[in-house]
Amino acid sequence: MDSVLERINKNHFWKFPGGIHPPEQKFLTNDKPIKNLRLPKELILPLKQHIGNGGELLVKTGDKVLKGQALTRSDNPMSVPIHAPTSGTISAIKNSIIAHPSGMSELCVFLTPDGQETWVARNIVENFYSLSKKNIVEKIADAGIAGMGGAGFPTSIKVNTSPGLKYLIINAAECEPYITADDLLIREHSSAIINGIDILNHLLEPEIILIGIEDNKPQAIAALQAASQKNDKIKVCVLPTKYPTGGEKQLIQALTGQEVPSGVLPLSLGVVVQNIATVFSISEAIINDIPLLRRVVTVTGQALQKPQNVWALIGTPIQHLVEQCGFNETEQQRVIMGGPLMGFALPTLQVPVVKTTNCILAPTNIEISPASKELECIRCGQCSDACPSSLLPQELQWQAKAKEFDKLEELNLFDCIECGACAYVCPSQIPLVQYYRVAKAEIRHNRVQDFKADRAKLRFEARKVRLEKEKVAREEKHQKALAARKAAAKTSEGQANNSAIAAALARVKAKKAQGGEAETTGIDSSVDGGDVKSRAAQAIARAKAKKAAQQTTSTPVTVESDSKSQAAAAIARVKAKKLAKEQAAQAASEITEEIVKPEVAKSKVAKSKTAEPEVVKLSPADEKKAKAKAAVAKAKAKKLAKEQAAKAVTEITEEAVKPEIAKSKAAKSKVAKSKVAEPETAEPEVVKLSPADEKKAKAKAAVAKAKAKKLAKEQAAQAASEITEETVKPEVAKPKAAKSKVAEPETAEPETAEPEIAKLSPADEKKAKIAKAITKAKANKSSVSKPSSSISDDDKKKKISAAISKAKAKKATATINKEESE
Amino acid sequence: MEILISILVFGLLASGFGALLGYASVRFKVEGDPLVEQIDALLPQTQCGQCGYPGCKPYADAVANGEAINKCAPGGDDTIKKIADLMGVEVQPLDENHSVDNTPKVAFVIEEDCIGCTKCIQACPVDAITGAAKVMHTIIADECTGCDLCVDPCPVDCIIMIPIKQTPETWQWDLQSIDVVQID
């Protein structure tokens, strides 16, 4: 230790390996004082300007804010707040491109200054020694101070350590060839900086404070030496100019001779390094209670007429900065944030100055030539000579190109500080740093992925264990129940010498038989129309019809004209459609005019009976029901679509239809009257009938979705065959039917059916009825993969569509009847 | 006599080594197949089942027993290459039956449409969906592996897969976009 201090006292410092001497360009800006800029029209303040997380917003659009008012807050120590750099109005809070090489957007607060510069109430402490250390750290955190040298690490974390450091190092090296911001700041505000150092001294109580500064800033050195005379703990250490002396680890090595090992923080060596601009901000925050609102930015480059250091408010658009310095935009103009060696070209000039922005470089193309073509590595080894971290850049480069990430880590890629010295010396002009950055990003990404994969694995395993447990528990329960049943069976049927298994079998059989009976009776009752259960029975019948439709083979249709009901005609139409699918034109032509005529004529009477009562009853159904039913409808449509085998289409024989028709009318009218709506028939109706437009829309959307899915799953082409003209014509020919567009050939595409429903929505009751019919029809039809779209806007149409739906229900029961008769 | 001696010596040696091996096989017995663990570690653990096995571990098991190594769609060519390295077999292109789109995605429940049927919860291999019967479900995005398995069971199609957005933190440097050059 003594020898180290002795060496320091003798100004006899160490060397770090490598390093380069790029041509100095500091003369562009180091002879002019820091200029105050006029207020920009708008300030853009990214919520996150440092390493860590952004805070949560405290303001909203339209709020008036005062200068120095905090705009975000956070309980997370890795997060520092941002402040309003001037008074004004929050004009927007939205995503905007941030100062990041990716050119991506992040959430930013847009502040329109009012020019008043009205300060928020400040609490200036005369003597900071009166504050507790905790208070000071808090104040530093509240002032939003994050490392201003480039990395943006929250300063409050860095200074919140137990006292007893060996070295506090103040980094004033500023080694990038263009940047003079720290130089000018020291010259103009050396006493404030020394105050800041005093505060840090008070907090950290280091044994010695070293200010590392390169020998190319004589005026700054003189200013610091003059200001630091009172405090003999402070030692201004003048180092030879070499890039990258300003690197944290390099500066520590140059000043103390200690190399910071890989993966170790300087703190563990008893060293804390603070950038000098950060120290100035600390002084402002503690002594004047001014949060971090502005910083010195070197605006330089030969594309500017007046390159200069400026006081830029955080959030000032770069455009404003360069314009103030006489920016002449040239062709292929690049504007670089940061120095030429470590900075990045900005995606746009609308990005704002952030807490880590120390330089804006607008070079001409002669000054910094655009990237030239990369040549093969000639293995000259200059890069490893230049590397300040003693890495092997050329090997890293090969492995990075080969994406050998394990080897890259073995070669300590993560010790690379991306200083760019290797790329600078490379005679083949290989952009080495870029390869490292890409590789680093990918390795980090892989780490995150691995972490996620591990978690997923754990969760998967845990789930498996849980499922296993549940299964065992279930089995146990079943076994217990079985045992209980056995015992019960034994006691109740004392004499029965059947074994328990036999009994169980018998029970199962009995159940089955019962179920079958119930179904048949149900159907019967629905047909008779006298049973109260008729609705449920109908549902079962329908379900069966669907199934049957998939299994049974088709029989040709020869429907005779039935003068009684329009329903019959509707059935005929349905059949015609189905038939068309199978046998296209010929079979369909079998349907005669007679079928159509009577139907149209009589439709009025029958329809009014069935449709209206239902409407009346169902309309009051409340919102939730409607929604739930819509969902059920959706689910069913989906299920049906899955089940159906599109091709097998069955036709209903005449015999089956006739008796059924006669009975079904009576049955239906009863169904409609009885209060409890049976889910299958009711759902679509309710959906359509519910008064609120919104819900209707929702239901429709649901139907549409279900259909879309169904459609995708179907084998479109064959099943969707069109109804031939022959089938259609007869209907159209009749005067009455002509008006209704019912008979228009349908394309059999679910999508087309949908818009039609939508069109009808304005008409309340009619629409409702029609929609009901359609949905019903569709649900049924989905088994044959073709929704009917027979819709019209007048009464008859309405009725006809209702008839279709009815007919289907009947058809279903008919199928059952047929089955039974067989 | 010499023959007897040599037989005796070799017999002793053989029984000695045999005993040693027997002891070692008991003492240093390895539970499970270490190869399966290694393969499992290479798989992306999305538990998506696209390989035809109910999870990554079962597939790893199958691969160790001779199943094709090119069935992991989310892992893509990288994973195939790694498994090939580990197993000492040829790298194969991804099985054609499997989708090649392995952009990271995360499932999202369209909450207005959710009916609370819990079907997706049952389908999720990593328990990344919360909810209960008849209440809205939602996806824990951080735990979602983007496996897609919840999409199909949904009766109302309210689950969609959203590609994960890039943020400046997850951004991958692109060689073209970097523009820092030497100065001379």
Quick recap:
The complex is a heterodimer of chains A (822) and B (184). Chain A is α/β, with parallel strands linked by helices and 822 residues long.
Write up what this structure looks like:
The complex is a heterodimer of chains A (822) and B (184). By secondary structure, chain A is an alpha/beta fold. Helix content of chain A is 50%, strand content 9%. Chain A has 27 helices and 16 strands. In chain A, the strands form 4 sheets. In chain A, strands 1-13-12-16-14-15 form a 6-stranded mixed sheet, sandwiched between helices. In chain A, β9 (208-214), α5 and β10 form a beta-alpha-beta unit. The longest helix of chain A has 61 residues, at 432-492. The radius of gyration of chain A is 42 Å and the shape is elongated. The model of chain A is unreliable at 518-532, 552-565, 584-621, 645-691, 715-764 and 779-793 (pLDDT under 50). With 184 residues, chain B is mainly alpha-helical. Helix content of chain B is 33%, strand content 8%. Chain B contains 5 helices and 4 strands; from the N terminus they run ααααβαβββ. Chain B has helices at 2-27, 34-42, 56-64, 76-87, 119-123, and strands at 105-109, 129-130, 138-139, 159-163. In chain B, the strands form 2 sheets. A two-stranded antiparallel ribbon of chain B has the order 1-4. Chain B has a two-stranded antiparallel ribbon with strand order 2-3. The longest helix of chain B is centred in the first third of the chain and has 26 residues, at 2-27. Chain B is elongated and about 95 Å long. Chain B starts with a helix and ends in a 21-residue tail after the last strand. Chains A and B meet through β15, α13, α18 and α21 of A and loops of B.
Rough outline of chain A: elongated
Helices of chain B, by number, come to 5
What share of residues are in beta strands of chain B? 5-15%
Spatial ordering of strands, largest sheet of chain B: 1-4
Which pair has the most extensive contact? Answer: A-B, 65 and 39 residues
Spatial sequence of strands, sheet with the most strands of chain A: 1-13-12-16-14-15
Q: What kind of assembly state do the chains in view correspond to? A: heterodimer
Helicity range of chain A: 40-55%
Major sheet of chain A: 6 strands, mixed
Low-confidence stretches of chain B: 177-184
**C-alpha Rg of chain A, in Å?**
42 Å
- On the 0 to 100 scale, the average pLDDT of chain B is 85
Q: How many angstroms separate the termini of chain A?
A: 107 Å
